[in-house]
Design brief:
This protein has about 220 residues and is of the alpha/beta class. It has helices at about 15-25, 30-45, 50-60, 90-100, 105-115, 130-135, 145-160, 165-185, 205-215, and strands at about 1-5, 25-30, 65-70, 75-80, 80, 120-125, 140-145, 195-200. The protein is built from 9 helices and 8 strands. It binds 2'-deoxycytidine-5'-monophosphate. 2'-deoxycytidine-5'-monophosphate (DC) binds next to helix 2, helix 4 and helix 8.
Length: about 220
């Protein structure tokens, strides 16, 4: 079974998808981590991120693997190297949407994501899972929350590791990524017509997981 979860940054998708996969004994596939790994490689190899041809060539020449740990967390491997920590750094977050908007990059990620999802029962989480990657997924969810709440959640998540961060900086990043992710030409962020919309603004993570489980069991 494929469970597709889409939604904007900071809506709580990743935590919900991870917990849901753990509860169901499914694989958890974080597709944003794949775009982040590519962004890391582009930065490390000093590529011009505005040169689409070069970025697409890099994407086609890159291997990205995700592995699930028994505690529900994942490890991300870029050409065999564990980059799970580096891909969460602010310099990656800042550029990732610009890499993810490139058509040839998305085509390459589509191959990897479909192959990963077909390994077994999976929960895939991203921006275009229900619309493009697995339009025939058995269960589709669009997880959202209002902008203020998403900013607050992302700020609380980041402030431990990034002492300098402010809510204004987080808000700017979310606004920027929301705009690029939803207005891009290829596979923009949007709710699939047949996805269940869940506004998590006033819900706890556990409540969201319970709602999803109820839909899945129905
Ligand atoms: O979920 P995240 O914040 O780790 O995702 C990072 C970026 O990757 C996000 O801003 C847009 C892009 N992305 C995408 O375009 N399509 C996906 N399926 C997943 C992520």
């Amino acid at each position: 079974m494929i469970i597709a979860i889409d939604g904007p940054a900071g809506a709580g998708k990743s935590t919900v998808a991870r917990l849901l996969a753990q509860r169901l004994g499914f694989l958890y596939i974080d597709t944003g981590a794949m775009y982040r790994a590519l962004t890391l490689k582009a930065i490390e190899t000093n590529l011009n991120i505005n040169d689409e041809k070069v970025i697409i060539e890099m994407a086609c020449d890159t291997s990205i693997d995700l592995t699930n740990n028994s505690d529900g967390t994942i490890e991300v491997f870029l050409d065999g190297r564990n980059v799970s920590k580096e891909i969460r750094e602010p310099k990656i977050t800042k550029l990732v949407s610009d890499i993810a908007k490139i058509k040839g990059v998305r085509e390459r990620m589509l191959e990897i994501q479909r192959r990963s999802g077909r390994q077994g029962d999976s929960v895939l989480e991203g921006r275009d899972i229900a619309t493009v990657v697995f339009p025939d997924a058995e269960k589709k969810f669009y997880i959202d929350a209002d902008f203020k709440e998403r900013t607050k959640r992302r700020y609380l998540e980041l402030r431990e590791s990034e002492k300098q961060i402010t809510t204004a900086m987080v808000a700017e990043d979310l606004r920027n990524r929301d705009f690029i992710d939803s207005s891009r030409e290829f596979a923009p962020l949007k709710k699939a017509e047949d996805a269940v919309y869940i506004d998590t603004t006033d819900m706890s993570i556990e409540e969201v997981v319970e709602v999803l489980l109820k839909h899945i069991k129905n």
